[in-house]
Amino acid sequence: SASIRGGVAIIPVRGPLFKRANLMTEHCGATSYETLLKDFHQMIESPSVQSIVLDIDSPGGEAKGCSELADHIFSARGQKPISAYIGGTGASAAYWIASACDQVFASDSAIVGSIGVQSAVRSEKTDGEIRFVSSQSPNKNRDPATEDGAKEVQAVIDGLAEVFIQKVARNRGTGRQEVLDRFGQGSVFVGTEAKARGMIDEITTLESVLAKHGEKNMTVEITAAFIAEKHPAIAEHFIQLGVAKSQENLKASVEAERKRISTLRLLSDGQVSEEFCQSLIDGGVSAEEAALKILLEVKSSGSVRSKATEDPRLAFDRTLSGIDLPPRPSIEAKDLSEQQDKAIELARKLGLNFR
Per the confidence metrics, is the pTM higher than 0.90? Predict the structure, then answer.
């Protein structure tokens, strides 16, 4: 039932609240905690949603399931901005849910509060029925019309109310006694009074709340620090990708360097020193530039060998500016290595002659 507007998810919290979805929630304007929780998690996980607003108009509902839903909302704080807006009534369980959000807004005519728990019970004294309870469990299903039965029901209700009070105190960043003293002990208040008591944060309208969330979305700066803080799992994923890519690049660089060294040494044919070849490698020159520098180094050193006497198709005699350079030894064509092929191709690109 949630909708998205300008990057803001709006989740309606309407009518009586029940733990599970049923015909009441489907057709009678009620809401279930399980549906709210499903919608809420979808909006938290959706990349198209930057913030969430719970649009509340509910008198409350079942205690069962309310605490769990509120805890999920409270735990999601910091992942995305989460606000509650009480446009009509935000009482009892509805206020419990609202208090779990980062901020609680309300209209000036909103009804807020009713922090507490109540239960309606029926006496077991009915005509025509006799009930037996196991002797080991004398406190099971005591008749609330009796003094002992009433005390037991009261203890359960008080226990639930204590959970409610403690959770509201945590959610609103205050103490248990502050909730007891200022939040009404079960009373409800109109918007302005609720704000004065610290139960809500601001009197406004739903449109204003949506506009504020929209403005915040426009100014969010996604940085590495933001991702590391708000989404550590995503940050760790990208870190691991980066490590793997760095290792892959390093491996590729080492392999390329080895091939380049081999090519340069092949071009030199032993007529220049390894130090000279290494200087070319350290200088980062291209293979073509290295080939020319090696040939110039051979020329300047005056190192000349006799011309090749092998089959001219298999031995190559490189020349530069009329200076004969030594041929490669005669070898079978099928034994030419990939590096030799590359060296020959480089020499051809430089305009060198073959005989």
Answer: no
